[in-house]
Write the structure tokens for this entry.
Amino acid sequence: MYTEDDLSNAVREGVVPEATASAFRHYVEKNRSTSIADEEHFRLITGFNDIFVVIAAVLALAALWTLGNTAAPWLGGLFVLVAGWGMAEYFTRIRRMALPSIVFLGACLTGAFFGTLMSLMPVFSQEGPQAPLVAFIVAALVATAHWFRFQVPITLAAGIAAVIGVIMSLLAMTFAFSDTLLKGALFVSGLLVFALALKWDRSDLERQTRRSDVAFWLHLLAAPLLVHPIFSTLAQGDFSIGVTQALITIALYLVIGCVSLVIDRRALMVSALAYVIYVFSNVLNSFGIVDLGTAIIGLVIGTGLLLLSVFWHHVRAGLVNVLPQRLTLQLPPA
């Protein structure tokens, strides 16, 4: 299985002429009645061997974690970190396997974070933010080193998530815990990550290189950071969940949908789905439709999203065409 990134590398190294690669892309787009840029391709699995490697690696990592923890929590974390890094040296740097690379990154960060956290919790107060602060710092440092060594697309998003954890821990140490402060900090973090994701998107508008994969994972991180504070505040408002709240939810979801269409990323819409289903299920429950409420909402929303998927290109083209030209030049072609 070959990806757009592989094809672009082949063109850059002179294996395939640019004209041949472009003709092949046009053929695939015509044959599948779609645009390659609109499909949000990202490398995840290239064959069953990826799954085979992941199963074997998870068994080995779990065993190392258990064996190390019999002596000390930090030792179990260190075992997992070193083993995950060592396996990445072959399966990521040499074999370039996507799914195992993600798992090995997760192993490195999990070993670093939980090894540090579990070691420091007896030292600091278990409910205090000091131990999580140090653990997030260690995880962020490991993610930084992993990025410069392996350049796995998800690493940047994972490292930023660790940095956000550091910021939240510092806020908890500096100020008294406040739900409003937490939501505000998460929303601001989401805006910054979203802006960074758009910057990576602009560097590859045709979405033919690994930079598009990096942007995908950044959008996937930014989406819940932006959506959760808004919809959780709406669901916990002073007024009961009813028609008014449902209408506000529809309006917000339409705005989110338009943004997703314009930037050609579906992560925002997916992240908001759980909140939309929750609000409308409560509305139907208030009207006495208890047993079938979730099923009805699922049918309506699922059908609507399927129709949007079918007409995604046409709807997006209509939206993009009404935007100023200076803005459309920063977006994937419609």
